[in-house]
Amino acid sequence: MAEVIVAIPTFRRPQGLRRLLEALARLRTQARLTVLVADNDGERHEGLAVCASLGNYRWRLDAFAVAERGIAQARNALVERALAHRCDFIAMLDDDEWPEPDWLDGFLETQRATGADALHGDILREFEIPPGPWAARCDGVAPLLGPRSGPVAMIEGSGNVLLKRDCFEALQKPCFDPAFALSGGEDRDFFERLRRRGFRFAWSKEAVVHAFVPSTRATLGWALKRAYRVGNSDMRVFLKHAHGARDSTREAVKIAAAIALFPFLFAAGAATGTPVQALRRLCRAAGKIAAIRGRFYDEYAVTHGS
């Protein structure tokens, strides 16, 4: 029987955390679970209060405070706490997500079939208000869907993932770079480090979670800021890992193409109803240029949703 730790970082989203914990209590699984919650709010401690209010919870629940602000700091505290427990796997969920009842067994089944060290699953969006037609096609608003269950070359984010314990034990600590504290991208950096050490990745279509999108995120303006931030943090990860001249040239060509071709791609997209894709590419390129110039965008300095 698999022993699994579910690690949850939270910051000022008590309603989302409660929804997530209640969904975990409804899982259909024979696995043994421990749920870890890292409350990254050093003032209100709303996450701790939610955990304390649950009473006779189905799973072992270990909630603790992480005073130093930052998503990387919260994830590192969860890793340290998780490795002090006995476990085979560590799953990570965000506090605006909640799993379907067969989520965990779906992950475990795909892991057995593929032998993967780390797996990602589908993320379906649930909206406070319907997004605009342009925003609905953008990262963070559109659903995140894998093409099939099976091996993949890379995992980009840490929302809805399952990893073997070895993934964390093999890396030099901290596993998540504190330099990405409020910007995001710490997960992209983490998986890049795993990839370079030869760990294998897979996607599980059977491990489905839902993610709440508040009204402040269901807009084109927010979606383009997200594209800028992704470009910014991706370039920071690229620069950190000192790619060779060929990869650097390829990145430079992609940035230049996004800028030079923007008018033509936007016009072509307008004719087919998808001009937002050109805008996304342009914003990502702008974010990459800012990172090259040493300018970082702290997306997570602002909390969306409750």
Question: Could you characterize the architecture of this molecule?
Answer:
This protein has 306 residues and is of the alpha/beta class. The protein has 2 domains: 3-213, Alpha-Beta Complex (Spore Coat Polysaccharide Biosynthesis Protein SpsA, Chain A); 220-301, no CATH class. It is built from 10 helices and 9 strands. The chain has helices at 14-25, 46-53, 71-83, 103-114, 165-169, 186-196, 220-240, 245-260, 262-272, 276-292, and strands at residues 3-10, 32-39, 60-65, 89-92, 97-99, 118-127, 150-152, 161-164, 201-213. α1 runs parallel beside α2, α8 crosses α10 (276-292) and α9 (262-272) packs antiparallel against α10. The longest helix has 21 residues, at 220-240. The model has no long low-confidence stretch (mean pLDDT 93).
The structural domain count equals: 2
Subunit organisation of the chains:
single chain
Low-confidence stretches: none
Name the CATH architecture of the largest domain.
Alpha-Beta Complex
CATH class of the largest domain, anyone? Answer: Alpha Beta
The major β-sheet equals: 9 strands, mixed
Backbone structural class: alpha/beta
**Percent range of helical residues:** 40-55%
Using the alpha-carbon principal axes, give the shape.
globular
Q: Tell me the total number of β-strands.
A: 9
> Roughly what is the average pLDDT, rounded to an integer?
93
CATH topology of the largest domain: Spore Coat Polysaccharide Biosynthesis Protein SpsA, Chain A
In the CATH hierarchy, what is the superfamily of the largest domain? Spore Coat Polysaccharide Biosynthesis Protein SpsA, Chain A
Order of helices and strands: EHEHEHEEHEEEHHEHHHH
Number of H/I helices: 10
Radius of gyration: 19 Å
The fraction of residues in strands falls at 15-25%
Straight-line N-to-C gap = 35 Å
